[in-house]
Amino acid sequence: MEGFPVLLITLLSPVLAALILTFIPRDENKLIKCIAAVGTFISMALSLYVYFAYDKSLGGLQFVMQVPWIKDLGVTFFLGVDGISLPMLLLTNLIGFSAVFASWNVDHRPKDFFILLLLLIAGVMGTFIAQDLFIFLLFYEVVVIPIYILVIIWGSTKRVTKEYAGMKLTIYLLIGSGFLLVGVIALFMKTTAIAGVPDMSFTGLAEAGRRLGAFDQKWLFALMLFGFGSLLSMWPFHSWSPDGYAGAPTAVSMIHAGVLKKIGGYGLIRIALFVLPVGAKFWAPLIAVLGVCGVAYAAMAALAQKDLKYIVGYSSVSHMGYVLLAIGSMSVIGLNGAVANMFAHGVMAALFFSMIGFIYEKTHTRWIPDMGGLARQTPRLAAGFMLAAMASLGLPGLVSFIPEFTIFVASFKVYGGLAVIAIAGIIITALYVLRAGANTLFGPPRHEYDHLKDIHGPELVPLAVLGTALVVGGLLPFLLFDMVNSGIVPLMAQINGALQMVGGVF
Amino acid sequence: MVDFAMQHAWLVPLLPALAFVVIVFLTKPWQKLSALVAVAGIVGAFVFAALAAYGVFTHPEFTEGSLVYGVRWLSMPGLHINVGIMLDPTSAMMIFMVSLVSSLIFIYATGYMKGDPGFSVFFSYVSLFAASMLLLVLSSNLLEMFVGWELVGLCSYLLIGFYTHKISAREAAKKAFVTCRIADFGLLLGMLSLQIVFGTLDLPELAQKIAHFHQYTSAGVLTLIAVLVFLGPIGKSGQFPLHVWLPDAMEGPTPVSALIHAATMVVAGVYLVGRMLFLFSEIPSAMELVAITGAFTALFAATIAITQREIKRILAYSTVSQLGYMMLALGVGSLSASMFHMWTHAFFKALMFMGAGSVLTALHHKADVWEMGGLVKKMPITAWTFVVGGLAIAGIPPFAGFWSKDEILATALNSHHYVLFAMGAFTAFLTAFYMWRLIFLAFFGEENPANHPVESPWNMTVPLIILAALATVGGWVGTPWDNVWSQWIFFGEVEHAAPNYGVMIGSVILALAGIYLAYQLYYVDREKVKAKALAERYHGIYTLLFNKYYIDEIYLWFNHAIVDGSAKLFYLFDIYVVDGIIVNGLGAFTRLSGEGLRITETGRLQNYALVFFLGVLIIAVALAFSSPSAAGLLLGGVK
C-alpha cells in the first residue's frame, strides 16, 4: 500500500459523495441517503484499516502525504496520522456513518441536508489529519458554515429558537477561531523570525516555538487556550453547548458533541501544548481549575434539566471538564486519559443524541415529564439509551471507564483535593442519567405511545456501530490505549525536554 | 481435567457471560431455549468451579500462596493493569458456593418466572449477574475486581427494576444504584490512592508492598486509604448507614432477591474486605471500624426486622443483620469465621428467599405475613424447608448457622471485644425471635380463608430440598472439634480456637429463648393479643422501628431539598448570569454599538464628504505640529 494516498481518499470520500449528490434529483429520497451512506462507509472502513495498519512500535507520523502549497508562508498540504489523531479520525468516521443513519428519516430537503452533512464530516476529519497549522485552520473554518445552515433550517425550537441556537453555536466557534487566529499569526511571525524560514507544519512550529521566551509563550498560550477552550465548552465559555445541541438536528448534535468539540481538546494538546510547553506549564493549574468547575457545575445544572437534549448537553460540558483536568495534569497518564476520554465521550454522546433523536422523532417531545414507560413500547430504543447512559456514568466494561480512571489517577496525583471534587462528579452523573432514564423509559407506559414502532432497519445502525465501539473499547481497553500511548509518549518526551532546557537556562 | 479447570478458571465467569450474549442476540424469542442456555451456562460454570475447587482443596500448598495468572489489559508509563485469575482456597470456596447456589436459583426461576413476558430477558440478566460475580471473586487485580463489582451493581439495577412498569421498582432500582455509587466513590478514591502510593493494584503485589508500607507512606495515609476502601463494602453489603437500598431491592422478582441477598451481590462487600484484609490488618483502628460497623449493623437491622410485616422485607433486614456479623468477624481479625458464615448464610438465606417466593406465588403476591397463616397444611415442602432455614439462622445445632455464628461470637470474645460480643449475642436472640415470628405467623396457626395456596411445582421445590439439606449439613465442615474449614481459609496464621462450650451453650439458650418468645406471642396466643398490646404500649418505639428509624425519609429530604435545590440554583445561575448577563450581554453590547454606529451611516454624500474633510484636516493639523515639511506636502497650495 506504499504510496497509496489512503488518508486523502478517506478525506475525499464524503466530499465526492456530496459532489455526486448535486447531480441527483431532489426527490430521489432513498438514493440520496444511500449515496451518503456509501460515502461515509468508505471513510469508516478506510479509517478502521488505517487504525489497525498503523505500526505502533514505529510510532510517529504515518500514511504521510506532503504537497508544498504556499511557499512564502511555508504552507504544505500535509496529511498524516499518529497515535493522537488516529483515534479522533476513527471516531469522526464512526459517528459520521452513524449520523447518516440517524438522519434516515429526514424528509425535508434531504438533498441539501446530506450535502451539508457530508461536507461537515469531511471538514471535521480534515482537522484531525492535517499536520500543518494553516490546513488545520482551513478545515476548521470549513466546518462552521454547514453547521450554521443545518441548525437554522433543520433544527428545532424549544427553550430557545433554532435561529438563536444556530447563531450562538456559530458565533462561539467564530470567536474562538478569532482569538486562535490572532495567536496563530503572532506565533507564525515569531517562529519565522526565529527559524529564518517560514514553516507552518506542527513539527516546524514546535521546534521554533519552544525557543520562544517564557513571556511570549504565556500570552500566546492564553490566546489558544481561550480559542480551543471555548470550542471544548470550557467553563465559563460553555453556554453555547446545551442551547446549541438542543436546537440542532440530531446528526449535527451527534457530530458536534461527538467530534467537533474534540477539535478543541485535540488542538490544545497537539498545538498549544506541543508548541508552547512553557506557556502550558504556566497555565496548567488554571486549566485544571476550570476543568473541575466545568465538571461539577455542569453536572449540577444537568440535574435540574427536564429536556433530554439539555441533559446530554450539560453532561458533555461536564465530561469535557475531565478532559481539561487531564490536560492540566501535564503527565503521560493524564494526556492518555484526555485523548482516550475524548474518544469515549464522542462515541457515548453520539449514541445518546441519536437515541434521543429517535425518541423525539417518534413521540414529538423531549420533555421528560411528558414521557414514561417507553421501555415497554420501544425496547431496543430503551436498550440503546441505557447503554449510552451507563457509558456516561462511567460503568466499567464500557469504553469510558478506563479513560476516566486514568484521568483520576493523573489528576489526583497532581491536584489532590481539587481532583476529588471532579471525581465526586461520578455520583451526580449517575443521579442525572439514571433519573432521565427512569422517567423516560420506565414506570407505567403511556397509552398515547402504544402505537410507536421500535427502531428497526436502518435506524438500528447507530446503535450497532456505536454500541459495538462502546463495548469493545470497554472490554479491550488496550486497543485504544496502546494507540494513544504511542502518540503521547513521544509528545510528552519532547515537552519535558523543552521544559528541562528552560529549567537549565533559569 | 482438574488441572485444566484450575489453569482455565476464567471459563467459570465466561460461560454465564456467553449465555448472556447468546440469549440477547440469538435465543431471545424462544423462552424455553433461553432458559436452557442460561441453565447450561451456570451449570457448566459450576462443574468447572467444582473441579477447580477440588484441585485447590487437594493441594495444601495453596494455603501458602495462590495460583495467579493473567494477561495485560492496558499499560502506559506509570500504569500497568493486568487482568487475571487468582485461585486460592478462599476464591475456590466462593466460586463453588456462588455457582452452586446460582445453579439452584436458575432452576428454581424456570418455574417461578413461568409466563412472564420478560422470561428470556430475565435469564439473560441473571446470567450476566452470575458472570460478573464470578469475575469479581476470581479477580487478581483490584481494578478488575472493581469491574465485576460495578457490573453486579448494574445487573442488580436491571433486575430490581425488572418490572419496568412499576414505579416502585423503578425507584428502588435507582436508589440501589445511586447508593452504591456513593459508596463506590469512596472505594474509587481508595483505589486511586493505592495506585498512586504503591504503584500497583495487583492484589498479590499489593499485599507484599503493604506489609512494608512504611517504605511508601505513613500510617495516617494508610488509615485514610483503608477507610475509603471500606466505604465501598458499606454500600455494597448494606452496612449502616448505606443499608437503605437493600430492603427496597425486594421489588425485583424473588429469585433475584435470593441471588442478590444470598449468593452474590451483598456478600461482595464482605469478600472485598476479606481480600483486602492485608490492608486493614495493618491498621488496628481500621479493623475496629470494620468490627464496630458490623456489630452495630447486625443489631440495628435486627431491631427493624422485628416489626416488619412483609415477608421479603423481614428477610431483607435479616440479611443486613447477618452481613453485619460477617463484617464483625472480619473486624476482629477472622477471615475464617467471616467466610464460614458467608458460606452457611448463602444456603439458608437462599433457601428462605426461595421459600418466600414459593409462598408469594401461591398467594398471588400477597406479602403481609399477618394475612398468611397455616400454610404448612397446603404447602408442606415449602413450609418444612423454611423451618430448616429458620433453625439454621437462629443458630440451633446441628444446623449450619449454629457453627458459623458460634465461631464469630467465640472469636469476638477471644479477641476481648466484650461489648461487640454482647451486641452479637443479643442480635442472635433477636434473630431467632423475628425469624420465628415470621414462621409462626405465616406457616402455622389458623389458615386464612381468603387464601387458596397450592404447593409449587417440582422445579421450585427440588432446589428448596437441596438447599435445606445444605443448610443442615453445610456447617459440619467447621465444627470446633475438627475444624477443616479454618485449616484452609484463614488470614495470617491458622486460627484454631479451642471449643468454647460457654459460648456454645449460651448462644443456644439465647436462640431457644427467642424462638420460645415468638412461640408464646404468635402461636400459643391465637388472637395475638399480647403482641398487639406490646406494640400499643411501646407505641413510640414500635413506630420508630416500623419506619426504619426514618433514615429513608431523611435521605429523601436531603436528596430533594439539598441536592435538587442546589441543582436549580446552578441552572438559574447558568441561565441568568453566565448566559443572561455575560453572553447575551456581550451580544447586546455588540448589537447596540452596531446600532449606535448605524446613525452615522446616513447615505448622504455631503455627510461623508464632511467627515472625510474633517479627517484630512485633523491629520494635517496633527502633522503640522509634528513634522511641518510633511504638512506642507499635504496641504500643497495652501500657504
From TrEMBL, chain A:
Keywords: Membrane, Transmembrane, Transmembrane helix. One of its GO terms (molecular function) is NADH dehydrogenase activity. It holds the Pfam family Proton_antipo_M. Its main location: membrane. GO terms for cellular component: endomembrane system; membrane. Belongs to the complex I subunit 4 family. The keyword Transmembrane applies. It is found in: Endomembrane system; Membrane. This is NADH dehydrogenase. The keyword Repeat does not apply. InterPro entries: NADH_Q_OxRdtase_chainM/4, NADH_UbQ_OxRdtase, ND/Mrp_TM. Residues 130-428 form the NADH:quinone oxidoreductase/Mrp antiporter transmembrane domain. GO terms for biological process: ATP synthesis coupled electron transport; electron transport coupled proton transport. The chain crosses the membrane at residues 6-24, 31-54, 74-101, 113-131, 137-157, 169-189, 219-238, 259-276, 282-304, 311-333, 339-360, 381-402, 414-434, 460-481. It comes from the Bacteria. It is a multi-pass membrane protein.
UniProtKB/TrEMBL annotation, chain B:
InterPro entries: NADHpl_OxRdtase_5_subgr (IPR018393), ND/Mrp_TM (IPR001750), NU5C-like (IPR003945), Proton_antipo_N (IPR001516). GO terms for biological process: ATP synthesis coupled electron transport; electron transport coupled proton transport. It is a multi-pass membrane protein. GO terms for cellular component: endomembrane system; membrane. It comes from the Bacteria. GO terms for molecular function: NADH dehydrogenase (ubiquinone) activity; NADH dehydrogenase activity; quinone binding. The chain crosses the membrane at residues 6-26, 33-57, 92-109, 121-140, 146-164, 176-201, 213-235, 256-280, 286-307, 314-336, 342-363, 383-403, 415-436, 457-478, 498-519, 610-635. Keywords: Membrane, Transmembrane, Transmembrane helix. Residues 73-123 form the NADH-Ubiquinone oxidoreductase (complex I) chain 5 N-terminal domain. The keyword Membrane applies. The keyword Translocase does not apply. Residues 139-431 form the NADH:quinone oxidoreductase/Mrp antiporter transmembrane domain. Belongs to the CPA3 antiporters (TC 2.A.63) subunit A family. This is NADH-quinone oxidoreductase subunit L. It comes from Desulfotomaculum copahuensis.
